[in-house]
Amino acid sequence: MSNAIKSIVDEDVREKVVLIRADLNIPLSDGKIQDLTRVKRLLPTIKFLLNSGSKLVICSHLGRPNGEYFEAYSLKPLVKVLSDILKTKVNFSNSCIGHGALEAKKNLQSGEILLLENLRFHKGETENNLEFARNLSVSCDIFVNDAFSCSHRSHASLHAITNFLPSFSGILLDQEIKALTSVLKLPVKPVAALVGGAKISTKINIIEFLITKMDFIIIGGAMANTFLLAMGYDVGKSMVERDAINLAKKILDKSKKFNCQLILPSDVVVSKYFEENSDHKTVNVSNISSDMMALDIGPKTIENITAIFKNIKTLLWNGPLGAFEINPFGKGTFALAKVAAELTIKDQLITVAGGGDTASALNKSGVAEDFTYISSAGGAFLEWLEGIELPAISVLGKN
Ligand code: ADP
Ligand code: MG
């Protein structure tokens, strides 16, 4: 990743019109906002810019309206939310480009905000269209990307826009890159990755990349079943990917080559049914009967992973270790989240986590706040873990 990214915090932005690309892709139901996390994470950048006397133009996408106007995907409900939180007047433009947007930008005063309507109401956004980006840039002085979670996409408001305005990173994007760099580029060693979730096939590139970086890779969740199968264990009715057995074998071999210890569960919690509060018991991985499925890691495995946590300095976590949505199969995930959080509080461990379901599992564990950093990005976080350069970040370094 480029080191040449310039942060907006080092710029003089007084009287400047600053266009911020935010991720306000917020779950809305009947125009009501379901979760404010994404708005809250944007506040440091907004407050910094408002306090520095700039004029703020905020743009974002919401959902996938495919280039057409749909009221259900309007960003308008956010006007009240933003103005309530910031106690500032928030103006709104019904289109992100064109005459109305231009007039609204020209009328902005220092310390004021203009929210633009959904970028994806125009095809030019996802097509990375230069003319659309130029239109978006008109009457603005500076561009700030504060949407790490969208930066794996070459879309106009993230990529083409940098052709027209001096471009900078926002505070949230800075934090995200700092956290990811601290676990992947120059981690305090020993460093471990905890990889869970449903399928090897969706995480294969991540695991292969991490093998070259980590001292330990701890595997849990349903994907551990495929590894166990590849090692000759019978996993009964557990979720497995039979066509990924060779991939699992390849990973086991590669980890030896790179001196990365691959840790698999030694015991699991099994049940006949994938149901809330179904009958369950703990068995060794060599004793999974044919009518059972493994839905969580067992206590011996929790103990083993706890011991590893105590011996490492940096932990990267992606993927739940069991079917955490269904009680009691979140026990392993929640127990280890607590251990990781306690070690983080004691300054013994740097803990960085990310992934859609991982973030919700850690929130459910009640200790998410104590982690060093939990990424709010899904796809972009996973692509970064694969070692892929994110296009919208690369262009920021080219100023
Ligand atoms: P993330 O979104 O954090 O990258 P994934 O999407 O890879 O995570 O995986 C999360 C899903 O994996 C969860 O829905 C969870 O229920 C499921 N899962 C984890 N362990 C098991 C298991 N043993 N059996 C069935 N499903 C599991
Ligand atoms: Mg997921």
Q: What's the short story on this structure?
A:
With 399 residues, the protein is an alpha/beta fold.
Can you walk me through this structure?
The protein is an alpha/beta fold. It folds into 2 domains: 8-172, Phosphoglycerate kinase, N-terminal domain (Rossmann fold, 3-Layer(aba) Sandwich), CATH 3.40.50; 187-385, Phosphoglycerate kinase, N-terminal domain (Rossmann fold). The protein is 35% helix and 17% strand. The chain contains 14 helices and 17 strands. The strands form 4 sheets. Strands 5-6-4-1-7-8 form a 6-stranded parallel sheet, with helices on both faces. Strands 11-10-9-15-16-17 form a 6-stranded parallel sheet, with helices on both faces. Strand 12 and strand 13 form a beta hairpin. Helix 7 (204-211) packs parallel to helix 9 (245-257), helix 8 crosses helix 9 (245-257) and helix 11 (331-345) packs across helix 12. The radius of gyration is 23 Å and the shape is elongated. It starts with 16 loop residues before the first strand and ends in a 5-residue tail after the last helix. The structure holds adenosine-5'-diphosphate and magnesium ion. Magnesium ion is lined by residues 356-357. Adenosine-5'-diphosphate is lined by residues 196-198, 202, 221-222, 239, 294-295, 318-320, 322-325, 355-358.
